[in-house]
């Protein structure tokens, strides 16, 4: 009994030291890499209108409207989740590379003001698009960061909230890389074992907390709050305690049960902690079949976009699934996509 009380006390101290913030990311990785599926929840205090866009290859883009910037022509088509019709939250390209941006209060970017003259600036609104447009694997992105400098620019949103993010990428091989900024320095963490990411604190600190709970033993008890570290620990335990030989729809469904376990109940709030918020939607990206699944918390149905059956060649139209008037989709939503103008970035 005494040991049990000490464990609870240590856990409470660790949790109370952590800032509260939203979103969870989990990778289902089959033992033979035949299935790689990335699940993600988006949690926030106010509604984030999210539309899906499908962009073809061959589009000319830029990272900022003026000043030092990156310019590129997209090599690969992709499906993008776009918040407020102005910024890419996550997406998957035609090579099966997925990138997700999650809130992280401790992020301190390198900015134009503290970078050498001429350093290209990347708007957060199109950062995910840049990497999905240009790279097929995590290794390619990792090598790019080893050769290039980048400054970050981002607009505030939701009444002045600063866009503080960290990112994770996963490719068809199951290779994952986490990108975090600390005091203007980019830190890259790479490996097939990086199957879970939530929010604050930084990944090394989060892994230390997870290691503590592994010592406790998750079959006896797990931390149960909606705080970032607690969700990380639960996701880490459950993703390693479901079968690693599942296929197709069964694998997607199994990952969905893990994502449900780290979701925040609809309408949930804590007085004085607005960032501990309800899950607004859950996505899953099947990297082998190139299906991007989405389910809104206030609807009953799962739906998906199947990139493998869409034309993504240069000259194909931009397509949009507008969820502003109707979100009650179910099954493959390719026939609900409509030709559209590209979204306007919130530079």
The helix/strand series, from N terminus to C terminus, equals HEEEEEEEEEHHEEEEEHHHEEEEEE
Q: How many H/I helices? A: 6
Strand % is 25-35%
| Quaternary structure of the protein | single chain
Residue stretches low in confidence (pLDDT < 50, at least 5 long) are 1-21
Helical content band: 10-25%
Would you tell me the overall average pLDDT?
A: 91
What would CATH call the architecture? 4-Layer Sandwich
Largest sheet properties: 9 strands, antiparallel
Structural summary, described in words:
This protein is an alpha+beta fold and about 350 residues long. The protein has a single domain (about 1-340), classed as 4-Layer Sandwich (Penicillin V Acylase, Chain A). About 20% of the residues lie in helices and about 30% in strands. The chain has a nine-stranded antiparallel β-sheet with strand order 13-12-11-8-7-6-3-18-20, with helices on one face. It has a seven-stranded mixed β-sheet with strand order 14-1-2-15-16-17-19, covered by helices on one side. The termini are far apart. Residues about 1-20 have low confidence and may be disordered.
What structural keywords apply?
347 residues; alpha+beta; Penicillin V Acylase, Chain A; nine-stranded antiparallel sheet; seven-stranded mixed sheet; 6 helices
Quick summary:
The chain has 347 residues and is of the alpha+beta class.
Write the topology of this structure.
Layout: H1 2-16, E1 24-29, E2 36-43, E3 50-55, E4 60-62, E5 71-73, E6 78-83, E7 87-93, E8 98-103, E9 121-123, H2 127-134, H3 138-145, E10 151-153, E11 165-170, E12 176-182, E13 185-190, E14 196-197, H4 203-216, H5 228-239, H6 248-261, E15 279-286, E16 291-296, E17 303-306, E18 319-321, E19 331-332, E20 338-339
Parallel strand pairs: 9-10, 17-19
Antiparallel strand pairs: 1-2, 1-14, 2-15, 3-6, 3-18, 4-5, 6-7, 7-8, 8-11, 11-12, 12-13, 15-16, 16-17, 18-20
